[in-house]
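[worker-b] picked up task from shared queue
[worker-b] task type: protein-ligand structure
[worker-b] ligand name resolved to zinc ion; SMILES cross-checked against name lookup, match
[worker-b] sequence length check passed
[worker-b] input payload:
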Amino acid sequence: MGNISNRYAIVGVGESERSRKSGTTPLHLALDAARAAIEDAGLNATDIDGVMNYNTNDSCTSHELATYLGVRPKYVKDIQGGGSSTEMLIGDAISLIESGMLNTVLIYRSMNGASGQRVGRGYDPDMLQTALSGGSFIMPYGSASPSQWFGMYATRHMHETGIRKEHLGHVCLSFYDHAQRNPNAFLHGKPLTMEDYLATPDISSPFNIHDSCLELDEGNAIIVTSAERAKDCKSKPVYIMGMSLRQTHPHVHYWNDIDQVAADYVGEELYQNAGVKPEDVQVAAIYDCFSWVVLRQLEAYGFAPRGEVGDFVAEGNLRIGGKLPTNTAGGMLAEGYTHGMNNAIEIVRQLRHEYKGTDRQVEDCEIGICTGWSGPDIAGAMILRN
Amino acid sequence: MTTMTYQKPVPLKDQDNKAYWDAADEHQLALQKCKDCNTYAHPPGPSCSKCGSKNVSWEHFGDEVTATIYSYVISYRPFLPGFQDDLPTIIALAKLDQVPEVKIMCNVLNCDEKDIRIGMPVQMIWENITEDRALPQWIPIED
Ligand SMILES: [Zn+2]
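[worker-b] inference finished, payload out:
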């Protein structure tokens, strides 16, 4: 990526209600989120000239969303994707604005993740065998859930580094604690203790239900524009200092070398593009489809040396008040799950100091990191500032 | 009918993996190898996943195949049909002794979930799952 540092900004963020049974369609949820983001930015819907979304065939199209916002944008784009897609589409939006094609792009993710089609459940096994690369080498052995796929990585990594189950627990406890400060978090009012955590039986070792993200019905939206145009917006812009994106493993689900993850290759370029170091980062949104994924990324992005990540989280460093307050709205483990976008929304709000004067605000934070994880094979990350 | 109906997914053969599953049905291991970069490709594909070469061939390793457990998960829920009668299920990656760059995903049978560990030596066996199909699996062997 060329030098786009500080020349693009996120100017609007918004979300729908979150629930386990929305009683409505992803289109309605997407409209709620988009209207909230447009209002947040102080724009008119007709200022949006590009609309993009990612989905797993579980959502409405950008065309439909634009239609019912009453907008006829120059450009619409729908991609198949999950984690890292927020970052990748923000990258696309920047490129299209840089080229002069567009001015202001709305990116959304909307899904009935609980009441509709659920990740890793309810699919026909024969369809999965053909749909996934190498699927016939996976499905006959009963492996069809991300908890099983990522568990394989976690077991190996924990074996090599000495990370233990209670370290996974510290990730969960930190995010559950944040959810108790966020009235909109799905698990607000449901605190978690280490005793409860360790007493909960595993679903797929080493993960129990607390290690796994909440699949909910929810829509999220983000608006990206140029720094120049951001001046006309009502909101305080959050600038993109740098990004990096990468695919590594040959197969999407048959991971042979489970010692490497794509995030290992993203960190260096990310910090170089942004012109900062890990120690400059004051607040984080780390993709947390599973607790362990956070530990592995903290290692990859240079927040703790290999082998010391467990101690880093046990010391409370992910909590508000710690060295790297992470997923401060509760994350996908305790706030909600939209394949990463809800964490990106939260870090924007933190960097705007939107919670100033409350126990949710990371005091005086200026620089934040937002990471995506589409599995160990694809990573995307960005560094943001206020 | 002499066998009970097999409920779990049966590996689907396609043009890229047929040689592997045909060999498995004969209780043999076959692996795809790239003649240009000498990498074994597992799972197999239309070309080498390392260098992109179309110059790939098949090598046979017979029926005496050993490995060590590289990683595993213990699954306590059935995410696919057939596994509900078979919990907990150990799903593992077995690193081949003969070709350490290849790790084969499998179940470890005849193994209590408390005993599974990384580095455990295992041997490939073939479960006859239908009248004409066999599934490569692994069982622990003595250290
Ligand atoms: Zn090759």
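[worker-b] attaching auto-annotations
[worker-b] Residues 26-41 of chain A form the longest helix (16 residues).
[worker-b] releasing lock
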